[in-house]
Design a protein that fits this description.
The structure is a homodimer. By secondary structure, the first copy, chain A, is of the alpha/beta class. Chain A contains 12 helices and 15 strands. Chain A has a 7-stranded mixed β-sheet, sandwiched between helices. Chain A has a 4-stranded mixed β-sheet with strand order 1-2-3-13. In chain A, a hairpin with a 2-residue loop joins strand 1 and strand 2. Chains A and B meet through helix 1, helix 2, helix 3, strand 4 and helix 4 of A and helix 1, helix 2, helix 3, strand 4 and helix 4 of B.
């Protein structure tokens, strides 16, 4: 998640053009102060296609930010699948549905062998929340280890393991925070957290990490990751891979981020790009863990795995494969990783595929770049605990021409 | 939620017809044991329209159970709104969106004056979870009061206040359970719970109830409700109306269930019928409460309030009004409430509008009736902590002919 500096400041509402000001004021009045708008001057898009977004007057923006419309904005195959199913039937998982079973098998077929169960939710937050419920039920533990600036979602339970959120809830007593990989010795730090649980009489349940460490500023290489996971398992706890952001091919090295680290998680959570914008998410798990949970609890999510959600998810997965988007993420990502370090003002480039963090001098430079790029009609975000990392995370159909436009824009605004 | 007896028993899988058996076995293998299927012999529907669902061979079922497709299965206006928006753009609330602001204003306009803020989520679980976060932030308390067989959702936090779920999580130390209205003296029981909080050094945050007490067996009349709410407020806590089931006109007496009791809640949660099956939900609140929360925390729900969700929700709300569905719920509900008590085997009828509980002798009679009606191609559920209540909760377009078909079916199976 980008830092608060990338947002519109409501105190500046009077400086907006009249029509925008009116809409922004109405919005603040009805949605209240917990909502944020991007950019010094907020923008409204009325349509999208591929990597492009358009305002009402037809102005085209290049989207190098949005990871949810992963196969491209308003992809015709996904939109058609949603339209067809919505016109026919939307119902839930307590009736039989061949399409649900087909998709579930198709999805788990993309995972290494021990991960053979899937449960459906509507959001990544719900998926992480359910993964923690399963992990706690299966281990009998409660302790959760997260990284320093982790973001895993917004339910009460998941906000409590998301240091990046700040806010009214302080981190729970059963949470231990370790430095992001690269800021410390990951294996050592995780072992310390496990020892601290023992000292506090808390039984550990899981280590959960976003496998590209997005909110920690993008960390593609994690020395000691396998050692840390082995220590977690030796302590009777589980490894949960939060693939809500890296999953479905974004890293260019396969479908899932955990594979880059030669690891097989116990539980995997999926979300954002899964239905290309339709609210669908999931937990993929080892069957023994689901059994340990399901023996004592039933689970029903009214909209989770509903007919339209499955149609959207199946179409999205089909497009990722049929349009070779993992390969595209690799090729275009490699090009960007090669070109970005040559730009003046870029201090460090970290990433894999189409998930790239670009560290600049400080948060003011990053903030200035994000707003200046927006004025050049290029969308980008910022990240990292110091908000000094530009986050490049476009739809996976981003191509060479898009890349050159982004590189040219970045060169201009960082000059 | 219906009791476990209304579900398919996996141990009987060998007795199913071959094609169904294969699909059920595949489903159990990939989804695991926490999922449930309705009926002794599960059924698959391939399309729906209005109050009717159809299997692949064209057999028509009358739907007297599903409250999510509230304006009717696959309503053409809602399906068209979803299709049009999905083909154009799906994006999130960090960009400006006039349709979002228009819908938000339209929705809060349906509430009494103090309730002027709305925040969007994807599910009723997320809405209840967010409402609790807001209530806790605004009151500084943690104590939550719920009814005996309450069901409010499936996040960790909300499962912990849902006694009907049972399962691995025992109720949290900050939860107090009061008997369902009618099983005790509601005002007295709530006051006792508040006193118990004081004695335990726990500051109360909220009383949360489903305003038709669906999982408590449907309780339309609640003596002492206003007194209970006054006591809650006197203790510095809030009243949260869970309108996920009764909301959007189902009770026939207006849009919201709380209005039947002449109460104005501090927070209201919405879900299931809000997008006629599309995953969209919300919290409606007094602005002071959202301010108390938003001053310390930001809230972003990737899919909550996204473009397609808003299109679905606006079309659904428009249809509820344009097709006079609140009035239809009242008229048809009154007809059912008048006719149902004349059926042999019906011990008690409770309800309002198209949310009706029919108490029969015991859980075996209720279970038998649900499965026998299904064989007659009529869908119904059961409810209540003893599973002895048949739950009639059809799409709001249920008409007189549908009612007569249901009454005839019930008469037959209870004979």
């Amino acid at each position: 998640m980008p830092g608060p500096t990338a947002y519109f400041d409501p105190a500046t509402v009077d400086s907006l053009p009249a029509a925008t000001r009116d809409l922004v004021e109405r919005r603040i009045r009805v949605l209240g102060p917990a909502y944020r708008l991007f950019y010094e001057e907020p923008v409204q898009f009325v349509r999208g296609r591929g990597t492009k977004l358009y305002t009402a007057d037809g102005t085209e923006y290049l989207d190098a930010y949005n990871n949810v419309p992963s196969v491209g904005h308003a992809h015709p195959r996904v939109a058609a699948a949603i339209a067809e199913q919505a016109a026919r039937l939307t119902t839930h998982t307590r009736y039989l549905d061949r399409a649900l079973v087909d998709y579930a098998e198709d999805l788990v077929g993309e995972f290494p062998a021990p991960l053979r169960n899937v449960m459906f939710t509507c959001t990544g937050s719900e998926a992480n929340d359910l993964a923690l419920r399963i992990a706690k039920a299966a281990t009998g533990g409660t302790g959760i280890i997260v990284t320093a600036n982790a973001y895993h979602g917004v339910t009460t339970e998941i906000a409590a393991i998301s240091p990046s959120l700040g806010g009214v809830e302080s981190l729970a007593s059963w949470v231990r925070v370790v430095p992001a990989p690269g800021d410390g010795d990951f294996a050592h730090d995780v072992r310390n957290a496990l020892e601290d649980f023992v000292a506090s009489g808390i039984r550990p349940a899981a280590l959960i990490v976003d496998t590209i460490f997005a909110s920690d500023g993008v960390r593609p290489f994690v020395p000691g990751f396998a050692t840390a996971v082995a220590a977690v398992r030796a302590a009777g706890a589980l490894f949960i891979a939060d693939e809500v952001q890296p999953g479905f091919g974004r890293l260019g090295t396969g479908m899932w981020g955990f594979a880059r680290h030669d690891l097989v998680p116990d539980l995997v959570t999926l979300g954002k790009p899964m239905g290309n914008g339709h609210p669908v998410a999931a937990v993929v798990a080892r069957p023994e863990l689901v059994a340990a949970f399901g023996d004592h609890a039933r689970y029903f999510n009214t909209f989770g795995g509903s007919s339209v959600s499955i149609a959207a998810a199946q179409a999205t997965l089909d497009v990722v494969r049929d349009e070779n988007l993992v390969e595209n993420a690799r090729v275009i990502g490699d090009y960007l990783l090669e070109q970005l370090p040559t730009i003046d003002g870029v201090l460090e480039v970290r990433g894999s595929g189409l998930f790239i963090g670009v560290r600049v001098a400080d948060d003011r430079v990053a903030l200035g770049a994000v707003n200046a790029l927006k004025r050049r009609h290029i969308l980008l975000g910022e990240s990292g605990k110091d908000n000094d990392v530009l986050k490049i995370r476009p739809p996976l159909v981003f191509d060479r021409a898009d890349s050159d436009r982004l590189l040219e824009g970045l060169t201009g605004v960082l000059a």
